[in-house]
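Data card: per-record layout.
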Amino acid sequence: MEKAMIHSRLRRLISWTPRALVALLVTPGVALAEWGLNFPRPVSPIAQEQYDLHMLITWIVTVIFIIVFGIMFYSIINHRKSKGVKAAQFSHSTKAEVIWTVIPALILLGMAIPSTKALIMMEDTTESNMTIKVSGFQWGWHYEYLDHGIEFYSKLSTPRAQIKG
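The structure for this 165-residue chain is written out next.
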């Protein structure tokens, strides 16, 4: 009885697979809106520096992800519980503990150097085109364009009339 039920489920899954693949292949044609998974093309040196930093950190994180998940899946597959096998007993390994402390610290240091460079570049306002004073307060911001005498407030709260409908 159970074997027939499994066979029926498998047959149903196999019959739906081509339909699901066709649906997946047709779906991108429906979504014609322009969008991207990354930042827009930078147009200033500071934006380019931020973009480069973002891409560097993205690749570092991607490599870490691949290594960690590779080790995890290797361990899951090769260290499964087997019948009649007694599991090994471990207490600790000073060498392993030093390695998994030093390597992340070096990675963070390697990411901090370009981050600091980008931060210093963003703080340099010697060649700015305009000066804007921005003051934050509860539920809003106050912007002052000091060279032009323009100022305005932006509120981050929803007006009560809009909330009540």
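Known properties of this structure: The chain has three domains: 1-31, 39-77+96-123, 130-165. The CA atoms of residues 142 and 153 lie 4 Å apart.

See the next section for split statistics.
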